[in-house]
Design a protein that fits this description.
This protein is α/β, with parallel strands linked by helices and 315 residues long.
Length: 315
């Protein structure tokens, strides 16, 4: 059952004739709530925190901080202590303007970290943030159970087959263009409908290659070929994609659109990140990919509890 609260403000762009919107307030259908893969079943009826660890020298926010495996593993331990649900390990920057890195270099960055996390006794799911099958395979062998694919299963022809064979989780992300040029002049006639069409097509493709529907999560790709208004529209109208009955991954952490609103540097965007996460949770977001685990988790937990009181009262 979906509990709702009707407010008198417009759900889409100014000029839209619709005068009310429905906020998704706590409980979504069971088919949205559960994300299954390998030996894991994640309850997405509550906010789920996916902690970002970039083992790169050039990521837009934390480039170079976790390039050394020992430092990255220490960060993973710290995130677990702060209540993270999933660790997302990446070895290739996909910031605007970035170039691809050689496969061997990406592997050398991520494999020691994944192995070290497992050797440290950390049992929560590990996600490998890659678009390459050549990286996903050894990452899974080392302990990853989710593939977070920024290409949405478009770059590696047999990635979907591998995910199906291993019963992995998959995050299908939308990106307009390529990292090097995606922010040059991104344009949409209707960003919500176009991303929704992409989701529908890629879900069909994934299932045709044997990936179970319950293994899929969807990420609209905040900042990946989107300008400010595109990002705000996505955060406000993401409930449109609940029709696919899959949990939504929202990744606003420290992104440029926050700096455009608040006129601040990438190192000073925690408050904006929290605001974006809480707002998107009201509209159906449930998995939040962030750098700062504890403050985001605590803010979302308080907001979620408040929402739960409201829906129980109205049930």
């Amino acid at each position: 059952m979906i509990h709702s609260l009707t407010l008198t403000w417009s759900p889409r762009a100014i000029g839209c004739s619709i005068s009310t919107i429905t906020l998704i307030l706590a409980v979504m259908p069971d088919t949205v709530n559960i994300w299954n893969f390998v030996n894991h079943s994640i309850d997405c009826s509550r906010p789920i925190i996916m902690g970002i660890i970039n083992t790169t020298p050039d990521s837009f926010s934390d480039g170079g901080q976790f390039l050394e495996p020992d430092v990255a593993i220490e960060q993973a331990v710290r995130m677990v202590d702060e209540g993270v649900d999933i660790l997302d390990i990446g070895g290739e920057s996909t910031r605007p303007g970035s170039d691809a890195v050689p496969v061997d270099e990406e592997l050398n960055r991520v494999i020691p970290v994944i192995e070290g996390i497992r050797d440290a006794g950390i049992a929560i799911p590990i996600s490998i943030d890659t678009r390459r099958l050549e990286v996903a395979e050894p990452a899974v062998e080392s302990g990853a159970v989710i593939v977070n694919d920024v290409s949405g299963l478009r770059d590696s022809p047999y990635m979907a087959d591998f995910i199906a064979e291993k019963n992995l989780g998959i995050v299908i992300m939308h990106m307009l263009g390529r990292p090097r040029s995606m922010q040059v002049s991104p344009g949409y006639e209707d960003v919500i409908n176009e991303i929704g069409q992409f989701f529908g097509d890629q879900i069909d493709f994934a299932e045709s290659r044997g990936i179970p529907h319950e293994n899929i999560a969807l990420d609209p790709g905040i900042g990946f070929g989107k300008h400010l208004e595109h990002n705000l529209t996505i955060l406000r109208d993401c409930s449109e994609w609940l029709k696919y009955h899959r949990p939504l991954v929202i990744g606003p952490s420290r992104k440029r659109f926050i700096g455009e609103i608040l006129d601040n540097d990438v190192t000073d965007r925690l408050n904006g990140t929290i605001g974006a996460c809480v707002a998107s949770m009201l509209y159906g977001g449930r998995i939040f990919r962030v750098h700062d685990v504890r403050p985001v988790r605590e803010a979302l937990e308080v907001a979620y509890r408040i929402m739960g009181v409201k829906t129980e009262h109205n049930a």
